[in-house]
Every structure is written in C-alpha cells, then in structure tokens.
Design brief:
By secondary structure, this protein is α/β, with parallel strands linked by helices. Helix content is 30%, strand content 25%.
C-alpha cells in the first residue's frame, strides 16, 4: 500500500518526538524536515531524532519546503505563524499542528476564516491536535460523557512540577513562573490564554449539543519563600512559584466546563512556597465529571519515572498524537478545519496488517 508522505516542520522538543514517530510509523514516509538553526541544517533526520540515518536531510529554506511533494506537514514551531500555515495549505498539503486553532470558530474568527479559505484553495484539511489542549482538554472528557446523563460540571485539571521543564519562554511567559504578581497581571499573554482555553471549552459544549453563554477567568498565584533552582534558572524569592489558572464556560443549560492548570516550581509538599494549595496529583491530569454519575479519571505516567522522564513523555504524547492523526486528516472529506468532532478515532499504528471479517 502507498504511504502518506510527511514533512516535519521544526524539531524542538515536540517536533523531535513527532519526527521520531513519523520515521517509525509503518504508514508514513518522511520526505522533508524544516529546521531553524545552522547547527541542525544539513543533518540527517535520523540523527536529529536519535535514530538511524534516513537519507532525508534537514533544510532551512521555506520555499523549498513549500515546493516539496507531500501529503501532510506536521507544523510545530514556537511561535507559530498563521500565514505560514495558510501557505502550506494553499500548496496542497494537509497541516496538523499542536499550535492553537483546536476550535477557533468563536475565539479567533479571522484566523478561522483564513484557514478555511486556504483549505478550500489547496483542497486539503487542517487539524490542531496534541495533548492539552488537543486531547485531555476536550477529546477525552467528551468520550467519558457518554457514560452520563445529566452533567452539572466537567473539570480538566493539569498538574505539573515544572522544575525540569527547560523551555524558558513557556515557563516565564506562558506560565508566568518567576514573575511578580504585578508583572503577571500586566502580561498581554493573559488575553491569549483566555482564547487558548476557551476553545476546548467551546468544543466540549458543541459536542454536548449546547453552547457557552458565560465565561470567567481566574488567575491565582503563590510566591516562593526562597530562591528555587530550576532548568530555566533561579525562580527568585517573592516571585510566582505556583500559578493556578481557571478558565470557565457555562452553557445555556447551566453546565460548567472548567479548564484548570496548576503549574508549580516545587515538590508536592510545597515547602518552598509561601502558602500551599490542594494539588490533586504530583504531575499529570485529572478529568472530573459531576452529575447523576460522578467520575474521576486520572491520567499520568508511572510513579517510578523521574521528573525529567515525566516531562519527556508528556512532550512525546503531543508529538505522537500529531503523527497518529495523519491518516484520518488526509482522508477526511469536505476540505477545511477538522476538529475531533469531525474525525474518526485517532489510534496508534503497529503495522499494515488488515483483518478480514
């Protein structure tokens, strides 16, 4: 059988996991790799992924990537560029990304219109996937609502000891860790985060046949009581060492849909913090559904793994989810933005064997 030809765009932490997944996937063929640094340019994709050489060499030239013959691009840069995504779509390549636009129809109508138009022009599809958002935030909760009837509240909580997470931009800008409360309150990213987390809330509401009619955002900070050494340097005393984000949507029927993050720079005992809060788990995710059936679903990694291994596997889940989405996205009909409400179940793939039933 023919394979789907895939280009990997960017090879950071998530991009490298995706690259490894493409190389290993029995239904995919790697045909190109886009990198940004001179250090990576010219290297074999296998070397970048820690695997055997593939014969595919990483390049920096965007026009050369656009001109390549490929079915799909896994687009993983930080920051992302909607104009770049549209160029890829217009060139006739499906695009799958961990970047925003999971359900952009209300929070970013302009980008949604641009992406839809580019999809129609190129006769292709666009899909935003990942881990959280991209799975934990919307796909998995919706799955478990099938066990319920009356639903009063759906809460998705992400807990993360972030001391070994090495992305300074994410830690200090997105998570506000190491900032003063005043700096965090004035951080323009707060408005972006609202859209970021309202998108999966709106997708859940749509999946339940409803709509969000009221929104609320809360940001709660706890400061360090001492300097804390981390992978991105010292989190100084009296700066934010725990950030608790709550983004809430209420449907017309009164159901609350809550996206919560508890990101912190300490162990679960929180002895380095000026006060403590109840953290459901050291690292991982909890889906909680309340109504006439009450469910708690915990998702995480084995406790014997080190914190570094927890972080690495968390990033890998994002990359592998992108990779496993390729067949479903490439085969979806009616070109345009495809959310989890439009696609069949995305699964891993161990081979090409087909069982005749």
């Amino acid at each position: 059988m023919s394979k789907y030809k895939v280009i990997q765009w960017a090879t950071g932490v998530v991009g490298t996991a995706a690259l490894k997944g493409v190389i290993r996937h029995p239904k995919l063929e790697l045909v190109g790799v886009k990198v940004y640094s001179d250090e990576k340019a010219g290297k074999d994709a296998g070397e970048l992924a820690g695997l055997q050489n593939t014969g595919v060499v990483a390049i920096q030239n965007i026009d050369a990537i656009i001109a390549m013959e490929a079915d799909c691009v896994l687009y993983c840069p930080m920051p992302w560029d909607v104009a770049e995504i549209c160029r890829l779509l217009e060139s006739g390549k499906h695009v799958i990304t961990p970047c925003p636009y999971w359900y952009p129809f209300f929070q970013d109508k302009e980008a949604a219109e641009q992406l839809q138009a580019a999809c129609q022009s190129g006769k292709v599809n666009f899909h935003a996937s990942g881990c959280n958002p991209g799975g934990i935030a919307e796909r998995f909760p919706l799955t478990f609502t099938g066990w319920c009837n009356r639903i009063d509240r759906i809460t998705m909580t992400e807990c993360g000891d972030c001391r070994t997470y090495s992305s300074e931009g994410v830690i200090r800008e997105l998570m506000n860790l190491g900032k003063t409360p005043e700096e965090a309150e004035n951080n323009p990213i707060k408005e972006m985060l609202k859209a970021f987390w309202y998108e999966p809330i709106e997708m859940i509401a749509e999946g339940l046949g409803s709509e969000v009619v009221e929104y609320e955002a809360r940001h709660n900070y706890i400061l360090a009581n001492q300097d804390i050494d981390t992978a991105v340097g010292v989190i100084e005393k009296d700066t934010i060492a725990l950030n608790n984000y709550l983004h809430i949507g209420r449907t017309r029927e009164g159901t609350e849909i809550i996206q919560e993050q508890i990101w912190y720079m300490d162990d679960i005992e929180q002895t380095r913090l000026q006060k403590t809060m109840d953290i459901p788990r050291r690292s991982g995710w909890r889906i909680k559904i309340e109504g006439d059936v009450n469910l708690i679903v915990d998702i995480g990694f084995p406790p014997e793994l080190s914190q570094e291994e927890h972080v690495a596997q968390g990033m890998s889940t994002t990359g592998f989810h992108l990779v496993n989405s390729v067949p479903a996205v490439c085969d979806a009909s009616d070109y345009g933005i495809k959310t989890y409400l439009d696609l069949p179940m995305v699964t891993g793939c161990m081979g090409n064997h087909t069982v005749t039933r």
